Model the fold of this input.
Amino acid sequence: VQVVESGGGLVQPGGSLRLSCVVSGIAFSRYAMSWYRQISGKEREPVASITSTGYNANYADSVDGRAKISRDNTKNMVFLELNNLKVEDTATYYCVVRGPQNYWGQGTQVTVPS
Done:
């Protein structure tokens, strides 16, 4: 199973970005997907999750109202749109397949400078 994130970068406070994740080697449409993040010096924390069909999603309080998770099962991809970015959103963001086991990507860095 391969999980590859992209779309991170340097974004000014108040800006937006869209993270992408492409998955291969597994029946993508069968599984829920999640985004996690790890702020330097802290444990990884969940950001958002979406069901296999894409009909339901949930968000961490820290991003609720500023984030949108979506997926395209025809392309084996999941996305995370983050708006009104804050300095505290600076982190490495990970895509996770909630499969028979959790499959993690290598992460993509998002930096929001102060």
